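INTERNAL AUDIT FORM
Audit reference: QA-55
Scope: verify that the stored structure record matches its stored sequence.
Auditor: D.O.
Record contents follow.
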Amino acid sequence: MPRPPTPDPSEGTLGDPLRDVRAVVFDTDGVITDSARVHAAAWKEAFDGFLRAHPPADPEQGRPFDVREDYLRYVDGKSRLDGAAAFLAARGVEVSEETVRAVAADKERLFTERLRAHGVDAYPGTVRLVRALRAAGVPRAAASASRHAGELLSRAGVLDLFDALVDGNEAARLGLAGKPEPDLFLEAVRRLGVPAGEAAVVEDALAGVEAGRSGGFALVVGVDRGSGARLLRHGADIVVRDLGELCAGGEPQ
């Protein structure tokens, strides 16, 4: 078996939580790239436009989409169709396939416009951790329900830091179920050649930590982008605010 490369001190070293895992799978939006806010803004415009055009009988059900609470509860980590259906049902809308597809398509258009106009950045702490994993010879994969994951990672300049990518295009091609089912993560770790029971998943979404737990991963790391306590309740082993905390000298909660 080939020896792992000698760690480069400039890239940092791994802290205790990740020293015993043989591979790490990272969610993309909100974990690697600061793109969750772009998704949330696009969802808000799509949902608010729909509710204005089709106001529910109960005025309270027609209140605007909340980019924090509604995003985390209904759409974060899910496929576009599942997220659209979940939110519309919660607002008392009679959910038909045609309606769900129309709202999801509107969101896709709005997200693409924002992405190409403004781009996204990678979180510095995440980049530091991924480079430390690479220096330690630990394989890394990115996974996302989004069909834009490859473009997001490329625009953020970090695509080459990962050994595998399983995105929404691959999920559709392979018929993988969306989160909270673990299919995306299991396919990603399969491509790295490491059993789930010896790998870690890193997620910021409630559906994502549930997927990591049900997939039998050795470690499920939650990234707190506003729902830290809930991540623990949904299956995270540890929660950090910044993934740089998982490098040597960090202090995960």
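Auditor finding: record pair retrieved intact. The beta strands are 23-27, 140-143, 164-166, 199-203, 219-223, 238-240.
Action required: none
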